Amino acid sequence: MADFDLFVIGAGSGGVRASRVSAAYGARVAIAEEYKVGGTCVIRGCVPKKLLVYGAHFAEDLDDAAMFGWDVPQKRFDWQVLRDNVLAEVGRLEGAYTETLTNHDVTIFHERAVVTGPNSVRLASGREVTADKILIATGATPVLPNIEGVEHAITSNEVFLLEKLPKRIVIVGGGYIANEFAGIFHQFGSHVTLVNRTDVILRHYDQQLVDRLMQISLRKGIDFKFNALIERVEKRDDGTLHVSMSGCDDFDADAVLFATGRHPHTSGLGLEDVAVKMGDNGRIVVDDDNRTSVPSIFAVGDVTDRVQLTPVAIREGQAFADTYFGKKPHKVDYNCIPSAVFSHPPLAGVGLTESQAREKLGQVKTYTSDFRAMKNVLAGRNERSLYKLVVDELTERIVGIHMIGPDAPEILQAAAIAVKGQLKKSDFDATVALHPTMAEELVLMR
């Protein structure tokens, strides 16, 4: 008999869910984590980043407070206070995740594990462990370019540990991580320069919303350098950085943050040695039931590079446990996955963008609402929100909803149900508005 029914490598969102649910079904489960229980999202990803976003919002809220009758005599930001409070919350969550696993009788190995066979793993301590099934859930890791001086730069892994707030920060990338940290550090008072090798940012979002975010970001003073590359980073004696560029002038900075994508974290796991089929960028190739080319080895989450989102990893971990230990087989539906960019202001979308809908469906109607939120009007802030419905002209079915403005992600979560449920524009029209709210714009477009 094997030591365990299931051995999971990686205690992130997908691995923890698969472990907990499998154990609840009666399986003997072990999990190995070489860093901290909770994974990228909880420890150094979406959770601490969202806490920084909350902190950054106070910069504008305090400015706006005067128009609402509040006297704020001094506005001073202390990076160390926020950083330490965020890290303390991360520590609390790590303990909570660990307790959840322990309460479900999951054996936790706080060390690295590598695969040594179809049914065996070796721990860093040298112990060999056997299992009927092995699940790889090691997530993804930030990509760094091969340039001189890259060791002086940071990634999203290290940004939460900065000793002090940089007065000037260069952020490299055009995706959601780059744009989110651009907004965060700008609100904290840093001068932000965003460098991108092309002239396209947030390529998977509706272009009309991306253009609006660009307009707002430029007005706020975020500096964009398009069609530009960093060639070298040089650290000077005073600790500042000189950034040598191609495509634009060189400049000096106090920090350089690379947010140029994430590759599946599979290096050194021994997968090639046991003939697990690998794809590009080191991703693990799996079927619809999360099984690899080796029948006893499975993978979920970012390590498969299907959809790199925490809720997707959780769904995959749940489906794995239900299918193989709960006798309730099912597959994850990857259609209509909502997503958001927690920029300033945030944007969110679900379903097809306008360009995707025109390419796929041909005949498309769009409805938009371009407005200033009531709070911004009284505060004297000219920032405008934009909501957009993409409708299949033949069926009147809403195939996409896209929004930029305050609380857009919170509103979109509920609106995504309409797209998933294949509701029609007439269903929105028949819904009475909830007034006064920003969300009522979704049912008032004509």
Task: Walk me through what this model shows.
With 446 residues, the protein is α/β, with parallel strands linked by helices. It folds into 3 domains: 4-142 and 263-324, FAD/NAD(P)-binding domain, CATH 3.50.50.60; 150-260, 3-Layer(bba) Sandwich (FAD/NAD(P)-binding domain); 345-443, Enolase-like, domain 1, CATH 3.30.390.30. It has 11 helices and 21 strands. The strands form 5 sheets. Strands 1, 2, 3, 4, 5, 6 and 16 form a 7-stranded mixed beta sheet that branches. It has a 5-stranded antiparallel beta sheet with strand order 17-18-21-20-19, with helices on both faces. A hairpin with a 5-residue loop joins β11 (229-235) and β12. It is globular and about 70 Å long. The N and C termini lie far apart (66 Å).
> What composes the largest sheet?
7 strands, mixed
> Number of helix segments?
11
* Total domain modules: 3
CATH architecture of the largest domain: 3-Layer(bba) Sandwich
User: Mean pLDDT, as a whole number?
Assistant: 96
* DSSP strand count: 21
* Structural class label: alpha/beta
Distance between the termini: 66 Å
